[in-house]
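Appendix B. One record, verbatim.
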Amino acid sequence: MFYKDDRLAIFIDGANLYAASKALGFDIDYKLLRQEFDRRGKLMRAYYYTALIEGEEYSPIRPLVDWLHYNGYCVVTKPAREYTDALGRRKVKGNMDIELAVTAMELAPRLDHAVLFSGDGDFRPLVEALQRQGVRVSVCSTIRSQPPMIADDLRRQADNFIELDALREIIGRPPRETAPQEG
């Protein structure tokens, strides 16, 4: 499904990829991930999307975001919003779907292949729109977790489904006890 001359871009939904890799019991080595897809085609861009909680003394995701930024990733962040749900629990909301979709659509005329690291079914219309512009779309998530982390309609819409667990030996590392939290 990958061709050496393909102009390729990676779009990583940080929270979704974090949850999927945790469900499978491994951490992602982002240096190896970038190298793997650089090997599969002409990697134009690698994007990583995440929301950050503002005003905290220390954010556990900050070291990862800084590392990605300094190592060739285009990191897209926005402030997460804190709220209290109906049961009085503190929740954090930081959806990055629109930012990812806008960037993917802007790049579409200059891409042959887009790789989306997310199982979020909300991305199905984006995949369809990219395909209408002649871009092949691979989606990387997992069906091996309980429950599966990928929406069935997203998996069916994609040109290619990449099982995240199949990449474990290529881009994975054993989980650390103090791994950054993705929210």
